[in-house]
TrEMBL record:
It comes from Luteibacter pinisoli. The keyword Oxidoreductase applies. InterPro entries: ADH-like_C (IPR013149), ADH-like_N (IPR013154), ADH_3 (IPR014183), ADH_Zn_CS (IPR002328), GroES-like_sf (IPR011032), NAD(P)-bd_dom_sf (IPR036291). Its cofactor is Zn(2+). It holds the Pfam family ADH_zinc_N. Residues 197-328 form the Alcohol dehydrogenase-like C-terminal domain. The lineage of its organism: Bacteria, Pseudomonadati, Pseudomonadota, Gammaproteobacteria, Lysobacterales. Its EC number is 1.1.1.284. It comes from the Bacteria. This is S-(hydroxymethyl)glutathione dehydrogenase. Gene3D superfamilies: Medium-chain alcohol dehydrogenases, catalytic domain, NAD(P)-binding Rossmann-like Domain. One of its GO terms (cellular component) is cytosol. It is an enzyme of class 1 (oxidoreductase). Has high formaldehyde dehydrogenase activity in the presence of glutathione and catalyzes the oxidation of normal alcohols in a reaction that is not GSH-dependent. In addition, hemithiolacetals other than those formed from GSH, including omega-thiol fatty acids, also are substrates. Also acts as a S-nitroso-glutathione reductase by catalyzing the NADH-dependent reduction of S-nitrosoglutathione.
Length: 370
């Protein structure tokens, strides 16, 4: 079938709106009509060429909401008409990782997903006979996309897909990092570095966890208004302290450091500051940001010897098929806020504007409506 899609032909170039060919679903696969998709910093990162796994030409996009159009042979858990959120972290329920009870990083299709193809090693996308790659197993910048059954969470049909699409990455990643990875306790102090879609969702998670002090750090003070509206208590712009390392500013502000910090930028120097602003003896720092290819983190080992802990979090530690429907219900019940995060809505033809707005620091999230 034909599908309108934004194609990334090569790194560093704008996306091209094209009419592509999409092959129907094979066994264990599902054809989905994407209704809406968010544009996340990770799409920008891959398009820039900094992503070590980035391969081209590719259909980017991983923050979608859609409706099942057709299912392949053997698919039992989904049927045409079901509303779904694509999962870049699938959940097979059978692999050692899924069964461990310790991680959400299902490995069942990890190798082929990383190569930009379906589990049988081939792509469902092409144009003029030339193969186009899948991205993160989701490729939501195409009106029609094909995913493995294990990469789809079935959700409440009443939920607006142009809002809950953000649960496919940003909002869930931030909230889950607080509730699942850090397990922030009531009254705990929290520092959040970077007030994009991820950092603001960490703020939401910290409010849900009943954290005491929620300190936001961003070099763009325009981001603080939304953080305050979501319940953050303190706001720090590193540019206001040109002579003091930001970790020292936070240690002094809190009388010893925070209980938990979250790095939501992808900057290895900020990752160090986020660890070192944690309280001696127990402070934990969670890395969410994705750093560029080849970058490394540094600190003095004594920071860890004296009780600070470094952790990482992917998709907020959330198991998509079992837990994401509950996130959708919490949005429907008013507990999770998504609408204020959507700063721009536009059609597919304007998708490059969404990338420009993110570059310029003007968008929290742009949502593309097909
Ligand atoms: P974003 O670009 O919207 O937000 C980043 C924020 O950081 C901006 O507000 C910017 O002003 C601020 N910032 C930049 N440099 C700074 C500095 N030196 N000090 C303080 N603030 C600074 O990005 P996003 O969409 O929120 O994504 C954030 C990161 O999370 C990215 O690296 C993205 O790839 C990553 N990510 C990780 C996961 C995961 O599962 N681990 C999921 C999604 C996104
Ligand atoms: O299992 O080895 C693996 C990789 C899982 C992918 C997790 C990706 C999380 C960070 C990427 C940002 C997503 C938008
Ligand atoms: Zn994302
Ligand atoms: Zn698995």
């Amino acid at each position: 079938m034909k599908s309108r899609a934004a194609v990334a032909w090569e790194a560093g170039k704008p996306l091209s709106i094209e009419e592509i060919d999409v092959q129907g679903p094979k066994a264990g696969e599902v054809l989905v009509r994407i209704v809406a998709t968010g544009v996340c910093h990770t799409d920008l990162f891959t398009l820039s060429g900094a992503d070590p796994e980035g391969a081209f030409p590719v259909i980017l996009g991983h923050e979608g909401g859609g409706i099942v159009e057709e299912v392949g042979e053997g698919v039992t858990s989904l049927k045409p008409g079901d509303h779904v959120i694509p999962l870049y972290t699938p959940e097979c329920g059978e692999c050692a990782f899924c069964r461990s009870g310790k991680t959400n990083l299902c490995q069942k299709i990890r190798v082929t997903q990383g190569q930009g193809v379906m589990p049988d090693g081939t792509s469902r996308f092409s144009m003029g006979g030339k193969q186009l790659l899948h991205y993160m197993g989701t490729s939501t910048f195409s009106e029609y996309t094909v995913l493995p059954e294990i990469s789809l969470a079935k959700i409440n049909k009443d939920a607006p897909l142009d809002k809950v699409c953000l649960l496919g990455c940003g909002v869930t990643t931030g909230i889950g990092a607080v509730l699942n990875t850090a397990k922030v306790e009531p009254g705990a102090s929290v520092a959040v570095f970077g007030m994009g879609g991820i950092g603001l969702s960490v703020v939401q998670g910290a409010v849900m966890a009943k954290a005491g002090r929620i300190i936001c750090v961003d070099t763009n003070p325009a981001k603080f208004e939304m953080a305050k509206m979501l319940g953050a208590t303190d706001f720090v712009n590193p540019k206001d302290y040109p002579d003091t390392p930001i970790q020292q500013v936070i240690v002094e502000l809190t009388g010893g450091g925070v209980d938990y910090s979250f790095e939501c930028i992808g900057n290895v120097d900020v990752m160090r500051a986020a660890l070192e602003c944690c309280h001696k003896g127990w402070g934990e720092s969670i890395i969410i940001g994705v750093a560029g290819a080849g970058q490394e983190i540094r600190t003095r080992p004594f920071q860890l010897v004296t009780g600070r802990v470094w952790r990482g979090s992917a998709f907020g530690g959330v198991k998509g098929r079992t837990e994401l429907p509950g996130y959708v219900d919490r949005y429907m019940g008013g507990e999770i806020k998504i609408d204020p995060m959507i700063t721009y809505t536009m059609g597919l033809d304007d998708i490059n504007r969404a990338f420009d707005l993110m570059h310029e620091g003007k968008a929290i999230r742009s949502v593309i409506i097909f």
